[in-house]
Amino acid sequence: MVPDSLSDGMKIGGLQRTSLNEYPGKICAIIFTQGCNFRCHYCHNPELVLPELFARPIPEEEIFAFLKNRPLLEGVTITGGEPCLQNDLPAFLQQLRSCRLAIKLNTNGSFPRVLETILAYRLVDYVSLDIKTSFPRYQEVTSVPVDTETIRDSLKLLLHSGIEYDLRTTVVRGLLNEDDLHTIGQLVQGASKYIFQQFLPSKTVNPEFLRREAPAEVELEKFQRIMAQYVEKCEIY
Residue 237 domain-assigned? Predict the structure, then answer.
């Protein structure tokens, strides 16, 4: 049994009822949680990261009522913000099991003890872990001090969990270079799957990043070739 929560429930900021690409191989719904401990310049969910933009949370009952009456759904993805900020997350995931859906968690990896509980109780079936850049440059991306040892701990937990996973990096020009990739590659050596996501300047936490150009396909392919030296599979999304 998952330990009882001490909070007043999940703070859910959004629900996407159908996605064909968020959970590999499955039709899923996406639950967006409010709040994040990072302030990544390029983050495309400012309404979930910046408290002044938060809308009134969606009641959990509304989420479960929807999920239990959608026969075509195969899975559900929990993302944010940063879901592991939520004290109720393990208990919420345990409740989600009653919906008989595969569960995927997206996390920035900075809460390894929460992730350890989730993995130990097998509360999810898939985890996507963000690797923002090489560890020495993390604050340059996140805009806040980061104890990168927490990311390292989460990575170790995930690689030895036996649960399906991928590692992900959003490619933004100026925040990632070839030296960073080799440093990251040594950190994640032997990982089963690494994904590069193309930054698209639609909405961002830092408005200045709306003027950044998306990386060219040739740049992404070069990054893919570098990372493929270290991991079993590397893909571009």
Answer: no
Q: In 10 A of CB 211, how many CB atoms?
A: 8
The per-residue pLDDT for range 114-145, each reduced to its tens digit, is 999 999 999 999 999 999 999 999 999 999 99
- Can you say how many angstroms the Cα of residue 21 is from the centroid of all Cα atoms in its chain? 14
> Hey, CA dihedral for 129, 165, 30, 64, is it positive or negative?
negative
Asked whether the beta carbons of 88 and 63 are under 8 A apart, the reply is: no
Total count of domains within the chain: 1
> 3-state class of 117 per DSSP?
helix
CA-wise closest residue to 119 among 148, 150, 159: 159
The pLDDT score that the predictor gives to residue 3 is 54
State how far the Cα of 28 lies from the Cα of 185, in Å rounded to an integer: 30
Q: For residue 64, what is the domain's CATH number? A: 3.20.20.70
Half-sphere exposure of 151 (CA within 13 A, CB side): 22
Half-sphere exposure of 14 (CA within 13 A, CB side): 17
Q: CA angle, corner 141, sides to 186 and 48, nearest 5?
A: 120
